[in-house]
Specification:
Blueprint (H helix, E strand, L loop, with lengths): L1 H20 L38 E9 L5 H19 L1 E2 L6 E9 L11 E8 L2 H10 L9 H11 L9 E8 L10 H10 L3 E7 L2 H6 L2 H7 L4 E4 L13 H12 L8 H18 L3 H8 L11 H7 L3 H4 L14 H38 L10 H15 L3 E2 L2
Helix pairs in contact: 2-10, 2-14, 3-9, 4-5, 5-7, 8-10, 8-13, 9-10, 10-13, 11-13
Length: 404
């Protein structure tokens, strides 16, 4: 079909030239036919010079994380769980035109024999979403089994199924992690990776094992084809969270912050949102300070779930909701009284976030100083290290300014 379309594109200009020049010019020389090819959706790796300026409300960042959940990957899943909030912090450092990005994350799993063979043992766990609590919940629900890892298939499905941003110069990336050869399965990884970058999506490959094995297994080639980075990690390396003097106050501020959320929807939905926020705080474990730092930033948003966040974007929400969809404390109030209560809660949240951001900044400085005294090696690199290695440079190539 594509070949016939190309013939059609070529045939039309020739016919027009024939009609204009007349039959006597059928043997004329120097007839030039120009065929314009459709440009790529996004040039994600070129210089920021010449890029279309950002004019939207929030610059777009879409990230799909593709995790091998075969038997040998328990360590990888544990790293993803414990380092999620550190990874998200990498995006919190970025701005475009002074605006923090709207981050959406998707999770896919592949290589798990509990999944249907007819679907190449892969599953979309979470679509692209800005609900980071939902992403965390999904990671803690993953389990490993079996081992038929088809990288080409899962990359192709991620490109096809997800509603990737159409914003010019959005940062769109796939991070795929696993340990088996990259060229397994019915879909050629070369076709998958070329298709991804043609749609403006960079593919970063994270090989769980040593460098040479990753090269032999085609992980490096996959990254090169999709203009991403080839990285190696030790999936069994235990993640160590550095304790800091600021942790105690951060945890206290996080608890106070949770009390400022006005969840809305059905009674079961409201309960689910509140419960999940608390559960993901607990799941963060010793990484709770990193999670709290994200909750103090604009990356952690609950539009469509929390009235404070939603009201900032659409004040009419308090008139549209039914009485039994409102938070219990707002039921029975007039529209004006609801608005006043939301404003009070918004002010309270802003005060807590300011204190939390300052404590987190002091914590980051403490951790940076501690790490300067350590000597990390390639053999001890983790999933979070791989993300950190790729994100900063690629965000800059998409027109973001990346701070510390």
């Amino acid at each position: 079909m594509k070949f016939l379309q190309k013939i059609g594109v070529m045939f039309l200009p020739v016919c027009l030239l024939w009609a204009i020049s007349g039959a006597n010019s059928m043997f004329a020389q120097d007839i030039k036919i120009t065929i314009e090819t459709k440009p790529k959706k996004v040039d994600v790796v070129s210089s920021t010079d010449g890029k279309e300026p950002f004019t939207g409300q929030r610059p777009a960042v879409d990230v799909a994380i593709l995790l091998d959940t075969s038997n040998s990957m328990d360590g990888l899943i544990n790293q993803a769980r414990s380092q999620l909030w550190n990874i998200v912090q990498e995006f919190a450092k970025a701005k475009k035109s002074g605006k923090t990005p709207l981050l959406r994350v998707s999770i896919f799993e592949y290589g798990n024999t509990r999944l249907p063979a007819s679907e190449d043992y892969l599953r979309q766990v979470v679509p692209l979403t800005d609900d980071l609590d939902k992403v965390s919940e999904a990671l803690f629900a993953l389990s490993t089994s079996g081992g038929d890892e088809y990288c080409g298939s899962v990359i192709t499905e991620a490109i096809k199924r997800l509603d990737w941003s159409s914003e010019p110069n959005a940062y769109m990336a796939i991070f795929i992690a696993g340990n088996e050869p990259f060229d397994q399965g019915p879909v050629d990884f070369r076709t998958a990776c070329k298709g991804a970058i043609e749609d403006g999506v960079v593919v970063n490959t994270i090989h769980c094992g040593n460098y040479d094995a990753g090269v032999r297994g085609k992980w490096q080639e996959g990254a090169q084809l999709a203009e991403g980075k080839f990285l190696n990690i030790n999936q069994d390396e235990k993640v160590v969270h550095i304790k800091t003097p600021q942790d105690k106050i951060i945890i206290e501020l996080n608890a106070a912050l949770n009390k400022t959320y006005l969840w809305y929807g059905s009674q079961s939905q409201r309960k689910s949102y509140a419960t999940n926020q608390t559960v993901q705080d607990s799941n963060a474990g010793s990484g709770l300070s990193s999670r709290a730092a994200i909750k103090s930033s604009s990356l952690y948003r609950n539009v469509g779930r929390d009235l404070v966040d939603t009201y900032e974007e659409d004040a009419s929400v308090i008139e549209q909701l039914k009485e039994d969809e409102l938070p219990t404390e707002l039921q029975g109030l007039t529209v004006q009284e609801r608005a006043r209560r939301i404003a009070e809660m918004s002010k309270r949240r802003a005060e807590i976030k300011t204190k939390l951001a300052e404590a987190s900044k002091q914590r980051d400085a403490f951790i940076a100083k501690e790490r300067m005294q350590q000597a990390p090696s390639a053999a001890s690199a983790t999933l979070g290290d791989a993300f950190s290695d790729a994100i900063g440079q690629q965000l800059q190539q998409s027109g973001f300014e990346v701070g510390q």
